[in-house]
Amino acid sequence: MKAASTITSRTVVLPVEDIDTDQIIPARFLTTTSRSGLGQHLFADWRFKKDGVENPEFVLNTALARDCTVLVAGRNFGCGSSREHAPWALLDFGLKAVISSEIADIFRSNALKNGFLPIVVKPDVLQSLIDSPGAEVTIDIAASTLTLPDGREIDYPIDAFARYCLLEGIDQLGFLQQHLGDIEKFEETRPWTP
Q: Distance between CA 68 and CA 61 in Å, rounded?
């Protein structure tokens, strides 16, 4: 994971509701435990035609989507199964955050554990972003704020531990490894044995 304090990007808009994890990364691509290479299969059934050729009408295949790192998606993003491959595919494709009015709990948890930022906003804010594809937004991770194209700054919910991990560029294991000395000292000096 890479440490990040802010993300500034144009948005790529996918206004579909109820995007499930099988649409994000179809099950046939879950044969690996490696995070790299999954981005090529992101939204595979939408990005590619049946013959394997890119669908030029799908938003991620358009010039407008190039270099965008923030996805704006319809309500209930990431529903479905608990596959961790979904945030892996989004990250490997080059996306860093998704904004929606509702994000499935399991997807949200998996995303944060892997360095992908899910941001929940009110429906009217989401609609304004959907209506403005390619607009620039700034996400301040430390302050938990999203600056909209019109300059408004809104707060978004994120728990303190997840925010800390994103800012430090670590996952839960990395957090524990930061405290390895304290853990070893405790193990050496505790008066009881398991």
A: 12
Query: Please, are residues 82 and 94 in contact by the beta-carbon 8 Å criterion?
Result: no
**Could you tell me which of 3, 93, 81, 114 has the C-alpha nearest to residue 43?**
93
Contact predicate 101/120, CB 8 Å: yes
| Token pair belonging to 166 | 């994103």
Which domains does the chain possess?
A: 6-189 (3.20.19.10)
Written as one letter, the residue type at 71 is L
Strand pairing of 117-120 and 97-100? Answer: parallel
pLDDT at 145: 98
Contact between 169 and 1 under an 8 Å Cβ cutoff? The reply is yes
Taken in order 19, 76, 159, 125, the sign of the CA dihedral is: positive
* Predicted confidence (pLDDT) per residue in 4-40, tens digit: 899 999 999 999 999 999 999 999 998 888 888 999 9
Q: Which of 107, 146, 106 is nearest to 126 (CA)?
A: 146
Give this prediction's pTM. 0.90
Gap between the Cα atoms of 86 and 75, Å rounded? 17
